[in-house]
Design a protein that fits this description.
Strand content: 15-25%
Largest sheet: 7 strands, mixed
Mean pLDDT: 95
CATH topology of the largest domain: Rossmann fold
Strand order of the largest sheet: 1-2-9-6-5-3-4
CATH architecture of the largest domain: 3-Layer(aba) Sandwich
Low-confidence stretches: 1-5
Distance between the termini: 48 Å
Number of domains: 2
Radius of gyration: 21 Å
Order of helices and strands: EEHEHEHEHEHEEEHHHHHHHHHEEH
Helix content: 40-55%
Structural class: alpha/beta
Number of strands: 11
Shape: globular
CATH class of the largest domain: Alpha Beta
Amino acid sequence: MTDAADNVLVRQWVTVPGGSMDTRMGTGLADRAGKELKSVLGSPRIAVLAPTAAVPAEQVERVRRSLTDAGFSVQRIEMPQGPDALTLDAAQRVLDELDRLGVTSGDGLCVMGDTGALSLASFAAKGWCNGISLMAYPLDLRAALEGGCTPVGLTVGAHREMYAYPTAMRFVYCDFELMEPSFASEEELYGRALMVCGAAADTEKAFGKLWDGIDGYLEGDPKARATVIGDAFRSRGRVAASTAVATRDSLGFGRTFLRAARPLFGADVPSSTLLAEGMRFASRLAAGQGDFAVEDVLAIDESLDALGLGYVESVPFSAPELARALKCECFLRTNRFQMFLPKAFGRIRLATLSEDLLAEHAAAWVDSRN
């Protein structure tokens, strides 16, 4: 679907747990907030506008005017961002604000920000008065795909992503005017890794379609970019909404490695690189077990390379330390040592690993990066 000649607009309905999400990609979307929220709520009352500090003031003002023009009484709060948003304390502060403003199930919440802010907004909106309408304007690709479809879980104690919950998004609007400054950022690269993960977990056709769209996406063609993001939404949402737990969990492809390796590397290596390395590592483990074709391993490598996802250049730890970290990360969340390994595109499953296979591949990976 294309809007007026000067605006690119692709619309994609996305299946998500418990319903569907209206996603739009293009330009000029900030001016649609009021009209779209009113179409869901009917008689407008309160719209809580919740940007993070990083959102440009002019973009916040455009959304505010749109909501006001639609008849909403706009109440402003500031959302926490980054890891600070993914805590029980941050959740309590947002809930306190909704209570102070007298927000009911007939009102709306419009969040503008990063993955942390959008994830926290889903937590708050899902349960407040048994659910309020939630609209999001992501600042970057990662926020769109992760914060929109699969919120990052809350940190409990020292452990991240322990309290998981489904998305509550009703609308996600990827306005390229708002997202453009992030196109060369780490969050963009992480979002590209999420596109590969989602397509690999969805179907072989989805993976092939992503591959075919990479050149147009990277060239910055707005229609191509909008289409690729729309397809990524559809893949990620379809997997997350599956009735099969094994399928839903397949979006964990590469994340065990990311979480395990993060404390070993510290902050020196970007998370996008670790997620990409996690998918490469898991693909090779699967091939080593005889479950994943070598040509499919190479296809994942090539897609990550084409999207600019780099490699770790040096490893400041040993192979046994990596193997131990992977085990600790797995046992933190389950009672068995299993990792998400691809058997085919569209079939990523938890698989039990032998000590010998893990040691062999950990050694090979460490040696190849030194």
